[in-house]
Structures are given as structure tokens and as C-alpha cells.
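Quick review question:
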């Protein structure tokens, strides 16, 4: 009988398997020889391009296959999946369970621990548990050992967690145009950081862009390896080409009615004073605010910017500051456009890149509240 595979250590728990089926099927896979005292079950691995056992004519192909594997998901997704696998592996080790092969009963106990708060010190929301479960499914699939989520040990437990712990979705507050203008006034137009932040807020709002889409933009096509799209400044506005979850899409951002609130003017001003002629649009401002770095800004900066300026502008000042701080994030810009644009719904759906009108309606948080008063319409 084969021994149980060893439980990963903290050092390797977050590592993702280096698997390229086409190369392995062509004879590129080898078996690592176990060291004395280690698990006797050998594990397949994909040789590196420097491995002499890989045929020379396949070395370049293997390297390119790895690039495609990496491109199959975003960097943020890969980091989240690696973090989730590491957490699961650590929990398994503490309980004395093996992570491989996949055991539905073990996974069922893990999601129970997440829901009860015994796995990480606090109870996780249903959405977080479902994301962890999806992450484990993906990680097991990459290791060539699929996890059966329909198994009763997982499906029944998950159904019970939803019934007992599910709560209404907590959506981020939509930022409306007058609120956005107040947020812009909190930024210093005389600094590079202020010019950059104005451009990001206005472009994110007018384009209905996600925070990753804002910071993923380049000045032109194919200028960086990690870019998610590029912009073209035209006479009538800005054409944004984006690579999204479902493919490429174009977003048209028209010029504003005044220079102070025009996203194109804000972007042109930032590019001019930051002296950016190539590469990422939005970068970190360094040297006490007097220099612009070469690296792309992290998308978390968008969420921080929205939250900081909303608080500074007194948006939703009727609420305690702690509660207000939790209400705003990068999605507030997308929701703000959807909630304020008085146009045919299909245009908003296209701008936001939604596959269905139902998803767009979920974003129209404040526009449609009490617009139709059925109480009065019924005669009361």
C-alpha cells in the first residue's frame, strides 16, 4: 500500500504546481527520487528548461507553456489562490490531516471550521467560505487531483452554512457626481500626487472602471507585459481598450462639460506634468512628491484614494466615521456612474462590461430607490 502523501510545510504550502499537460504527455515528465526518511511516493514535476532530460527541441516550448499557465489568471487571483492553499495546508497540519489526495470529508470539516471561527480566530462570511472552496477546487485541479464539490460531505455542509449564516450582500456606497466633485476639491492641484489622483477618480468614474482596470492601463498598445489595456486620446474623448474576464472590450469616455470635471483634461494634465510618454499611466509619486516612478501603481491605492477623499469631503456625513470608512472603495466609482447616468440602461451595461442587464441593475444603487412609488400608484 502506498504511503499517505506528506503534508506540505509552511515553506511550500503556498507554492502552485508547475504543470503543463502537453509537455508531460510528450515525455517531459520525470519522477523525483525521494530522500531517505521522506514519503516514498514519487511526485511528478515539470522539468525546468535547464533540465538535460527534457529534449532540447522542447525547452523553449516548455518555457512558453509556463508563460501561458501564468497568463491564465490574474496576478491577484494567483496570490489569493496561493494564500488560500497555504491556510488550508496549515490547518490540515494542525489537525493531523493530509492535503493530498483530496478528501471531501476533510474539506467539509475545514469549511465548518471557517464558519464556526475555529480555523482563523473569527467566523468567515459565506462569500469568503465559497471563495476558499473555489480556491481549493482550483488548486486541486492544478495538481491533477480534482475535488468533488458535489460530494455530500461538502455540498450538504455548504448548504447548511448558507442557510444559517447567509446575510444580505454588503455593497459599497455609490459615489454620485456632486459627491465626486467634493472629493476632487480635497486634492491639491499643485502637486503631482494631486494631479494623478484627480485623473484616476475622474477616469474611474466616467469609464465605470474597476480599480485593477484603472491602474492596468498603458499609454499605448503592447507597451508593457503586465498591462491590461491602453488609451487613445481623440478629439471627442478617450477610447479605452481593456482586457477583461470575458475578453477584450472598448470603453468610450467623452469629454466633460467643464475642464475642472473633464476626465480627459485631468489625464492630459497628469501626463504632461508627470512627463509620461510610454508605459503605465498611473505610477507612484516619489521623492517627497516631486518625482514619478517607473512602476505601475498597485490597485489597492484606488480603494484607499476613494475612501480617503470621501471621508475628507464629508460624504455621508450623517453616519459615524467608522461606518463611513467601510462604505467606500474602488467599486463606489462604478456604482456611481451606474446610479447617476440618466441614459438607456443598455449603454450603462456596455460601459461597465456586464453580460446581463440584471447585473447592471444591482449597481444602480441609489438612482432607482423610490423612483416608482407603488404606494401612491395604488391610491394611498
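Suggested answer, residue by residue:
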Amino acid at each position: 500500500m502506498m504511503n499517505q502523501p506528506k503534508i506540505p510545510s509552511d515553506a511550500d504550502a503556498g507554492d502552485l504546481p508547475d504543470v503543463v499537460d502537453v509537455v508531460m504527455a510528450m515525455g517531459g515528465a520525470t519522477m523525483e527520487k525521494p530522500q531517505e526518511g521522506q514519503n516514498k511516493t514519487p511526485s511528478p514535476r515539470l522539468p525546468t528548461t535547464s533540465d538535460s532530460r527534457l529534449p532540447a527541441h522542447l525547452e523553449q516550448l516548455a518555457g512558453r507553456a509556463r508563460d501561458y499557465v501564468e497568463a491564465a489568471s490574474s496576478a491577484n487571483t494567483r496570490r489569493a489562490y496561493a494564500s488560500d492553499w497555504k491556510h488550508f495546508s496549515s490547518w490540515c497540519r494542525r489537525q493531523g490531516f493530509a492535503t493530498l489526495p483530496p478528501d471531501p470529508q476533510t474539506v467539509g470539516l475545514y469549511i465548518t471550521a471557517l464558519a464556526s471561527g475555529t480555523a482563523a480566530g473569527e467566523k468567515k462570511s459565506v462569500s469568503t467560505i465559497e471563495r476558499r472552496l473555489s480556491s481549493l477546487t482550483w488548486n486541486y485541479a492544478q495538481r491533477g487531483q480534482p475535488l468533488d464539490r458535489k460530494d455530500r460531505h461538502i455540498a450538504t455542509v455548504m448548504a447548511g452554512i448558507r442557510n444559517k449564516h447567509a446575510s444580505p450582500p454588503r455593497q459599497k456606497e455609490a459615489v454620485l457626481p456632486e459627491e465626486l466633485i467634493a472629493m476632487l476639491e480635497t486634492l491639491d492641484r499643485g502637486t503631482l500626487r494631486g494631479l494623478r489622483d484627480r485623473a484616476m477618480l475622474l477616469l474611474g468614474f466616467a469609464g465605470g472602471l474597476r480599480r485593477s482596470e484603472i491602474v492596468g492601463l498603458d499609454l499605448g498598445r503592447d507597451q508593457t507585459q503586465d498591462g491590461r489595456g491602453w488609451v487613445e486620446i481623440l478629439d471627442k474623448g478617450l477610447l479605452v481598450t481593456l482586457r477583461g474576464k470575458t475578453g477584450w472590450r472598448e470603453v468610450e469616455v467623452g469629454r466633460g462639460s467643464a475642464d475642472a470635471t473633464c476626465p480627459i483634461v485631468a489625464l492630459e494634465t497628469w501626463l504632461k506634468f508627470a512627463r509620461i510618454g510610454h508605459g503605465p499611466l498611473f505610477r507612484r509619486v516619489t521623492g517627497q512628491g516631486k518625482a514619478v516612478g517607473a512602476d505601475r501603481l498597485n490597485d489597492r491605492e484606488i480603494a484607499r484614494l476613494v475612501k480617503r477623499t470621501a471621508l475628507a469631503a464629508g460624504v455621508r456625513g450623517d453616519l459615524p466615521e467608522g461606518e463611513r470608512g467601510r462604505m467606500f472603495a474602488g467599486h463606489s466609482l462604478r456604482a456611481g456612474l451606474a446610479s447617476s447616468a440618466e441614459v438607456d440602461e443598455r449603454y450603462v451595461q456596455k460601459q461597465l462590461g456586464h453580460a446581463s442587464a440584471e447585473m447592471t441593475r444591482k449597481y444602480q444603487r441609489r438612482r432607482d430607490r423610490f423612483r416608482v412609488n407603488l404606494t401612491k400608484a395604488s391610491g394611498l
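Why it works: The chain has 16 helices and eight strands. Residues 75-95 form the longest helix (21 residues).
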